[in-house]
Every structure is written in structure tokens, then in C-alpha cells.
Specification:
six-stranded parallel β-sheet, binds cobalamin, globular, Rossmann fold, binds iron/sulfur cluster, alpha/beta
């Protein structure tokens, strides 16, 4: 297999017995006794960059904040290292910032290297943390080896350099990911693969086949800060899954792409090769958009029927055209209902044949600036209309990097602070939003309003959705 070769340099510090630590970030305790299933997913940025480092002879140890249950415990684990390396996303910024302070207290001469999404979208906040000695903005594949071995050659803000295509990425060495940190969790984790979360049987293999979604939804628009790159070839994706299966046994797959259902020619090749070449037709989770399902319904149907796409994540977000416009979603209520009806039809047919029915993982956003009560009722109506669904509901969060996030931050309306970027489901995120209304909405208080115009069967479904609120 072709492998991209990074320039090899003998790291002088290696000869001096350097101690470098990669710190995996997340809430304390999430690898001990996790708050929920999604806190256990492993970090592909960390996996990729550590794989590149180790393949180039640059060794690092791993510690995870998720494996610690207190900051004191973390402090003891940070002791004695020369270098701390972290992948900082906005939602892990508070943890990164605190960990860097602790690291410097115990290792005053140690160096802290950071990179990741938050560096790309909120450089000012990163710069304000004096403990961050180097801050890499953008992809790190082509700078990580030099940066770690010769940090003194780089300015404080380091421009990242990435591969042109994901074909150049090495296969992640998953044993470089942190381990579950309690015996109880280890039993069901299947490390170095991942545990099941209701989307398919364990062990779960998470993979990325594409890096950027080209759309411009105002709450996300990641293509404004993630450089475009070629998709991973279908053969490489299948080879990796087969390799993992031979080594560890794969139960199901999660394709972590922001947008799996893009590039019809890639998808056609996937339909042609996955059923033929994969060791098993593992069911998988992957994401699509309602407008493209409507544009390519046959492709959508073939993927479900022929490749076992069993959990279909759709960013429906809202059931109201007004709000979909505010979000620049470029999807309409009609697109959403087209997609829902299409899946109902396919799923009913598969069930009639005695086969398992695919379901939606339905992303829904509420508490969006400009949303009226009637808009919110329409969204809940759409959700109740879905027959086979795992709802994932979030109150809108103004992340930097996104157009709407930047706007609300500039207007002083964001309630996300550097001490508390990490959003808990019912946290209040934007000034001026009536969160009490939304809590009552999800508790079923407005059932009568929501049920208006819904078919009898849908009306009978519960309007209690508080437990579907997820971190956002
Ligand atoms: C998979 C994924 C998830 C998974 C798993 C997360 C995980 N453990 O990794 C799940 C589903 C759990 C998830 C959840 C959430 N996610 Co998410 N997720 C992603 C996604 C689609 C892929 C991440 C990934 O693996 N990327 C590929 C790797 C290779 O890239 P990378 O980690 O950025 O690393 C590269 C560079 O940053 C750099 N780099 C990184 N570290 C370092 C360090 C150094 C020293 C250097 C030099 C370079 C460097 O080099 C790497 C290689 O190029 C991204 C979007 C995307 N396309 O990246 C969103 C994304 C990261 N998620 C996001 C958000 C907001 C969330 C949520 C809050 C909810 C939501 N809206 O989705 C939750 C919160 C989770 C939590 N624990 O609280 C945002 C983050 C925005 C931000 N400003 O940080 C993103 C960008 C999506 C978006 N556009 O909104 N997510
Ligand atoms: S919300 Fe979904 S469709 Fe919109 S830009 Fe983000 S990943 Fe793409």
C-alpha cells in the first residue's frame, strides 16, 4: 500500500531522553464512568498525528483527562514531562487551558504545543493563554514531526500544512489511542476499537472517508476553516476495515464524516465494492442532507439496500422554512418530508421481507435566534412524524468558526465563555432566548399545539423529548 513519507529527521532531543506527552482531552471521568456514549469516541486528529510521529521515530506517551477523575490526579500524571501536546477543539478548550496551567506548575521549563480546530477559529483566545508556547493553525500532518522535534525553529503561531488528499494519510495505529480507565468500562469498550452506542453491534470501528462538508450552514460552515482535501479512496477504506476485522473483529462501523452522502461517483464505487470486498457487510452510521437525498433518491436507496447503511444521520435541524432560511441550510420543509417518507417506504419494505429496518439519527436544533414558538412546534411535529428515529436534539450553540457564531459573539450575545465552552444539554447559550419555553416544549407541555395536523399514529407518540437533548 502506498504510504505518504514524511521527511525523516533524527530528533536531537530523542538522544537526550526526551519525555513528550500527548494529552487526550475531554471531560474528567469520561473514560472511567462515562456520562454518555459519545464521550467515549476516540480522537482521529490525535490518532493520525501520533501515528505519523511514531512512524517517524518520534515517541510520545499518552494520558487522557477523560481517564482522570480529579485535577490532582491529572497533575500527578503530568509530572516529569518536557513537552505537552494537545488537539484543542472549542468544546475542549477549557480543559486544555486548565491542563496547560497545571503542566507548567509541575514542569516550569516544559513546552506546550497546541493545534486543532480552536486554534483555527479562535486564535485570540488561544494567544491569551500564555502557557500555550506554540499554536498550530490548521492541519498538522506535514508540520507535526518538525514542530515536535525542533520547536525552537518555529514562531509562536505556526501555519499548519496538511496532506492534499486523505489517500496520503497513514492508517491510524489505534493502539495509540487512550485506553478505558476502569475495569467496568474496559469490559465493554473493545479497545482499541470502540464501544457500541445503539447504532450497531460492538466492536465499533470509527473511520473518516472525507474531511470537509462543502455546504455553508451558518451554525457550522466548516469549509471556511478546514482546507479542502481529496476523499480517501474506497479501496483504502475497505482495506482498513478488513485489516481491523482480522485483527480485532469488527461488529459495526461509524463513518464520522461530516457529510458522507456527497460525491456521487465515490458513493457509486462504494456501492459496487463494499458488498463485494468487505469481510462482512457491517451495518454503519453515516450522515446525509435532506436536499441531496431528494436530488439523488436512487443512490440513497441503493446505499441502504445494498451497503447496509442502517443508521442515517440527517441534519434536519428544523421543520420550518423560516428557520431553515435563517440557518442557510439550503433545505426546505418539503425536502425534509420527502426524505422522511422515502425512508419510511424503504424501511417498511425491508421489514416486510423480514430484514432489519434502517432508522434516522435525527439532528434537531432548537432555541435558534429568530425562531418563533410556531417554528418550534413545526420542528417537534416533524420529529413526531418520523416513525423510526433516534432524535438528537440540541439547543443552538454559537461556536466560533461558524458565521452565525462569529456574529453573535461580536454582538455580545454568546453565553459561551472560555471557562465553559463545553455545553451541557440544557445550558443557556445565547442571550435573549426563552429557554424555559424550550424546556417545557421538550417536557411535553405543548403537546396539543404540536399534535395539530398530525396523523393519528404520530399524535400518539410521546412528546417528551428531554432525554434526547445532547451536548452541543
Ligand atoms: C467526528 C466528530 C465528532 C465525534 C467524535 C469527536 C471526537 N472524539 O473526535 C462526535 C460525534 C462525538 C462529535 C461530537 C461533537 N462535535 Co464534533 N466533529 C467531528 C468531526 C466530523 C470530525 C473530527 C475529526 O476526526 N476530524 C479529523 C481530524 C484528523 O482532524 P482534527 O482533529 O481537527 O486534527 C487535525 C488538525 O486540527 C491538526 N491538529 C490537531 N491537533 C493538533 C496538535 C498539533 C500540535 C498540531 C501541530 C496540529 C494539530 O492536525 C490534525 C490533522 O490535520 C468534526 C468536523 C471535521 N471535519 O473535522 C466535528 C467537529 C470537530 N465537532 C464539532 C462540535 C461542535 C461537536 C459537538 C459540540 C456537537 C456538534 N455540533 O456536533 C459535539 C461535542 C462532543 C463532546 N464530547 O462534547 C465542531 C467543533 C467546532 C469547533 N470550533 O471546535 C466540528 C468542527 C464540527 C462543526 N463544523 O461544527 N464530533
Ligand atoms: S451542518 Fe451539515 S450540511 Fe451544514 S455545513 Fe455542517 S456538515 Fe455541512
Amino acid at each position: 500500500m502506498f504510504r505518504f513519507v514524511w521527511p525523516k529527521r533524527t530528533p536531537p532531543s530523542d538522544q537526550g531522553g526526551s519525555q513528550r506527552l500527548w494529552l487526550d482531552l475531554g471531560d474528567l471521568g469520561d473514560l472511567v464512568n462515562p456520562a454518555g456514549p459519545h464521550e467515549q469516541w476516540q480522537d482521529h486528529g490525535l490518532g493520525l498525528l501520533r501515528t505519523i510521529l511514531h512512524q517517524n521515530g518520534v515517541m510520545t506517551d499518552i494520558v487522557s483527562t477523560r481517564a482522570c477523575t480529579s485535577w490532582d490526579q491529572l497533575q500527578r500524571k503530568l509530572h516529569g514531562y518536557d513537552m505537552l501536546i494537545m488537539n484543542v477543539r472549542s468544546y475542549t478548550f477549557p480543559v486544555a487551558y486548565r491542563a496547560a496551567k497545571i503542566f507548567k506548575q509541575v514542569n516550569p521549563h516544559g513546552l506546550v504545543l497546541t493545534g486543532g480546530m480552536h486554534a483555527a477559529v479562535a486564535l485570540d483566545e488561544m494567544l491569551a493563554v500564555e502557557e500555550f508556547d506554540k499554536i498550530c493553525q490548521g492541519p498538522g500532518e506535514e508540520v507535526i514531526v518538525d514542530l515536535v522535534t525542533h520547536p525552537q525553529d518555529f514562531p509562536r503561531v505556526v501555519p499548519g500544512r496538511g496532506a492534499r488528499t486523505m489517500a496520503e494519510w497513514p492508517m491510524i495505529d489505534r493502539t495509540l489511542w487512550p485506553k478505558p480507565a476502569s475495569r467496568k468500562l474496559a469490559r465493554r469498550f473493545h479497545w482499541p476499537l470502540e464501544p457500541e452506542c445503539g447504532w450497531g453491534p460492538a466492536p465499533v470501528a470509527t473511520i473518516l472517508t472525507s474531511r470537509v462538508c462543502p455546504w455553508q450552514c451558518v451554525f457550522c460552515n466548516e469549509n471556511s476553516y478546514i482546507p479542502n482535501m481529496g476523499r480517501r479512496p474506497v479501496d483504502m477504506v475497505i482495506d482498513e476495515l478488513n485489516y481491523l476485522d482480522r485483527k480485532y473483529g469488527v461488529g459495526s462501523v461509524v463513518i464520522h464524516d461530516s457529510m458522507f452522502f456527497q460525491n456521487p461517483s465515490w458513493l457509486e464505487e462504494w456501492i459496487e465494492k463494499y458488498p463485494r470486498k468487505a469481510n462482512k457487510l457491517w451495518p454503519y452510521w453515516a450522515a446525509a442532507r435532506a436536499d441531496t437525498v431528494r436530488q439523488w433518491p436512487h443512490l440513497f436507496e441503493a446505499l441502504i439496500r445494498e451497503t447496509n447503511w442502517m443508521t442515517i444521520s440527517i441534519g434536519f435541524e428544523s421543520g420550518s422554512d423560516r428557520v431553515l432560511k435563517i440557518l442557510n441550510k439550503e433545505c426546505t420543509e418539503e425536502d425534509n418530508y420527502f426524505t422522511i417518507d422515502l425512508l419510511h417506504r424503504i424501511a417498511d419494505d425491508l421489514e416486510r421481507q423480514g430484514k432489519p429496518a434502517p432508522i434516522f439519527w435525527s439532528n434537531i436544533m432548537l432555541a435558534i435566534p429568530g425562531e418563533t414558538r410556531e417554528d418550534a412546534f413545526k420542528t417537534m411535529r416533524m420529529l413526531k412524524y418520523m416513525r423510526r428515529v433516534m432524535p438528537s436534539i440540541a439547543f443552538y450553540a454559537p461556536y466560533p468558526g461558524s458565521a452565525l457564531g462569529y456574529q453573535l459573539i461580536a454582538e455580545g450575545k454568546s453565553l459561551m465563555t472560555k471557562e465553559n465552552y463545553h455545553r451541557f444539554p440544557d445550558d443557556e447559550k445565547v442571550k435573549g432566548i426563552d429557554y424555559q419555553f424550550y424546556r417545557e416544549l421538550l417536557s411535553g407541555k405543548y403537546d396539543d399545539e404540536i399534535n395539530k395536523g398530525l396523523p393519528e399514529l404520530a399524535r400518539r407518540r410521546s412528546s417528551y423529548f428531554m432525554d434526547a437533548l445532547s451536548k452541543a
